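Figure 3 (text version): C-alpha cells given as input.
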C-alpha cells in the first residue's frame, strides 16, 4: 500500500477531472479500497441477518425489526456522536469503532455456527452493530473533505457511493451463494474479517489535523451544531428530503427478504440476486448522475428519481416474472443512489469543516429515523394486508412525497 500523503492538494482543474480523479490521491485511494472491502462485508452480513431472521421468526414485523434494531441506536446517538467527532481525534474514534464492529460480527458468527442464536439474540447483536455504525458513519464522512481538495468533493462522495453500491451489486450475490453452500455464519465471519483493512489504513494515516473543543462545553457544541442545521435553509431542506424519500422507499428494504421468500418463492441465492440488481442499478446511476445534475438541477433530479423508485416498487408489487422483477429492482437501485448521493453531497458541501461531524450526524439521524419508522410502518401494514398491497401503498405515498420535495429546494450546491 502506498504511503498516504499528509494532505490533499489545494486546487485542481475542473476541466481535467474525470469521475475517478480522486483515486489519483494515494490517501483517498487507500481509504476507498479499504472501504470497498468493508462494504462487501457489510452487505454480505446484511444478507445473512435478514435471511437468518426469516428462518428464526418469519413474521413480517420480526424480519423488518432487523433493520429497526440497526437504526434505533443511530436515531438516538448520531447527533451526540457528531458532537464528539468535532471535539476529539476522529482517527482514534474510527480505530476503536472498527475493533468494536469486528468483535460483534465475530460473536454473531460464532453463535450462529454453534446453533445457539435466537431471534432476540440476533436483534441484540444487530443493535450493537448499530452502535458501532453510529460512531463510524458521521465521523468517516466528516473526514472525507480532508482527503481531497474541495473541487473534487462531489466526485469523492460519488465514489463513496460507487464503493457502497459496487459492494451492494456483488456482495449479496456472493453472500447468497456462500450462505447456501456453507451456512449463514459465514456471512458474519467475512464481515468481521473485512474490518481489518480499514484498521490498517487508519493506523497508517499520518493525520496532522486535530479536533478541538474550542473552549465550548459539550452542551454548547451540541446547541451550536443544531442551530446551524436549523437556521441554514439548504441543510434544513436536505434533512426534509431524506425523510420524504426514505420513509416510503424503505418498504423495499424492510420487506425484501419476505418478498424473495414468500412472494417470489426464491431461496438465499435469489434474495442475493434481488439485492444485487438494486446494487447494479445504483452503480450504473453513478455514471449518469453528473449529467442529470447539469441538465435538470438537483431538485428536479431528486423528484424524478423518487418518482422512478415509486414506479419500480409498483411493478414489483404486481409481477413475479424474474425479468420484470430484475428490471424493477435495477430501476429502484438507480433511484436510491441518485437521491441519497445528491442529498449527501449537498450536505457535505454546505457544512463548514468545524461542525461537519455534527451536521452529518443530523443527516444520519434523519436517515435512521426514516428507516426505523418505515420498517415499523410497512411491517405493520404487511401484517394486516399483504406484501402486494404494502408495496403498492408505499409507491403511491412516494409519488406524493416526490411532488412535496419540490417545495423544499436545495439549489445547485454541487456546481
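Below: residues designed for each position.
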Amino acid at each position: 500500500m502506498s504511503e498516504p500523503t499528509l494532505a490533499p492538494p489545494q486546487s485542481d482543474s475542473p476541466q481535467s477531472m474525470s469521475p475517478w480523479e480522486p483515486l489519483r490521491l494515494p490517501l483517498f485511494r487507500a481509504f476507498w479500497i479499504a472501504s470497498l472491502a468493508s462494504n462487501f462485508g457489510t452487505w454480505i452480513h446484511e444478507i445473512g441477518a435478514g435471511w437468518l431472521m426469516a428462518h428464526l421468526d418469519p413474521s413480517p414485523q420480526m424480519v423488518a425489526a432487523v433493520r429497526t434494531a440497526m437504526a434505533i441506536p443511530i436515531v438516538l446517538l448520531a447527533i451526540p456522536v457528531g458532537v464528539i467527532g468535532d471535539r476529539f481525534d476522529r482517527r482514534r474514534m474510527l480505530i476503536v469503532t472498527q475493533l468494536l464492529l469486528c468483535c460483534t460480527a465475530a460473536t454473531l458468527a460464532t453463535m450462529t455456527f454453534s446453533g445457539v442464536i435466537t431471534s432476540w439474540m440476533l436483534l441484540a447483536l444487530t443493535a450493537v452493530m448499530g452502535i458501532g455504525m453510529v460512531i463510524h458513519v458521521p465521523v468517516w464522512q466528516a473526514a472525507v473533505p480532508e482527503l481531497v481538495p474541495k473541487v473534487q468533493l462531489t466526485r469523492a462522495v460519488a465514489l463513496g457511493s460507487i464503493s457502497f453500491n459496487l459492494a451492494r451489486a456483488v456482495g449479496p450475490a456472493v453472500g447468497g451463494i456462500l450462505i447456501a453452500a456453507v451456512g449463514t455464519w459465514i456471512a458474519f465471519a467475512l464481515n468481521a474479517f473485512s474490518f481489518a483493512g480499514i484498521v490498517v489504513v487508519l493506523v497508517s494515516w499520518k493525520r496532522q489535523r486535530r479536533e478541538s473543543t474550542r473552549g465550548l462545553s459539550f452542551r454548547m457544541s451540541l446547541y451550536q451544531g443544531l442551530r446551524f442545521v436549523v437556521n441554514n435553509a439548504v441543510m434544513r431542506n436536505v434533512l426534509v428530503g431524506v425523510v420524504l424519500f426514505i420513509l416510503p422507499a424503505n418498504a423495499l428494504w424492510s420487506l425484501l427478504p419476505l418478498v424473495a421468500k414468500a412472494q417470489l418463492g426464491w431461496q438465499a441465492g435469489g434474495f442475493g440476486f434481488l439485492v444485487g440488481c438494486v446494487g447494479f442499478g445504483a452503480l450504473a446511476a453513478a455514471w449518469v448522475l453528473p449529467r442529470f445534475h447539469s441538465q435538470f438541477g438537483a431538485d428536479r433530479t431528486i423528484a424524478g428519481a423518487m418518482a422512478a423508485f415509486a414506479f419500480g416498487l409498483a411493478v414489483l408489487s404486481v409481477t413475479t416474472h424474474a425479468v420484470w422483477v430484475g428490471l424493477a429492482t435495477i430501476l429502484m437501485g438507480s433511484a436510491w443512489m441518485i437521491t441519497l448521493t445528491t442529498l449527501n453531497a449537498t450536505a457535505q458541501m454546505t457544512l463548514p469543516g468545524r461542525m461537519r461531524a455534527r451536521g452529518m450526524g443530523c443527516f444520519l439521524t434523519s436517515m435512521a429515523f426514516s428507516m426505523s419508522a418505515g420498517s415499523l410502518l410497512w411491517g405493520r401494514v404487511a401484517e394486516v394486508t399483504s406484501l402486494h398491497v404494502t408495496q403498492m401503498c408505499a409507491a403511491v405515498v412516494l409519488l406524493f412525497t416526490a411532488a412535496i420535495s419540490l417545495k423544499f429546494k436545495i439549489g445547485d450546491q454541487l456546481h
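The chain has twelve helices and no strands.
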